[in-house]
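I'll show a typical protein example:
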Amino acid sequence: MDALKKTVLSGPESSGKSWLSEKLALHFKAEYIPEYARIYLQKHGTSYDEDIVLQIAQEHQKFQQQGMARAQNKVFLDTDMVNFRVWFWVAFGKTDPWIEKAIEEESDHRYLVLYPDLPWEEDPLREHPEERQYLFERHLSEVVSLGRPYRVIRGYGEQRLSNAIEATMDLWSSPKAH
């Protein structure tokens, strides 16, 4: 049996990560692991500090591992620890050692980094409508600096999905970045 193929959707708020990761999982008959931070914040409220973000990251890791245990050979992750590094940096101007160690453990992730070319959708959990381009560049920079394979996804609706399907197949067949 091949190793589990882990594809992460990364990028700024309102770039379609949740929608696209679900669609890709359906297309490829794969496991889908939603963004745990959204689940947590919807349940506990939108206020957070460093300790809460770290707690969410730790619970995200457990949640992600449970989902991967169910996966057969492919899994689509709606974010991973790279997202927590960006969130921590944007919110607090630094990162956390636990998050850094967790990122090292995710070295087999491949990335679809979503360009913010979709219209902004209001959501009480979203904070940065004017910083989407900066956040895209930050996510992309993080993935590049880690040397992980990635593709940038653009487009709207079914075209975005088609682009992501093609990019996913390319990532799975060729581990080279960009």
User: Anything to note?
Assistant: The longest helix spans residues 50-70. Residues 67 and 159 are 28 Å apart (CA to CA). The radius of gyration is 15 Å. The mean pLDDT is 89.
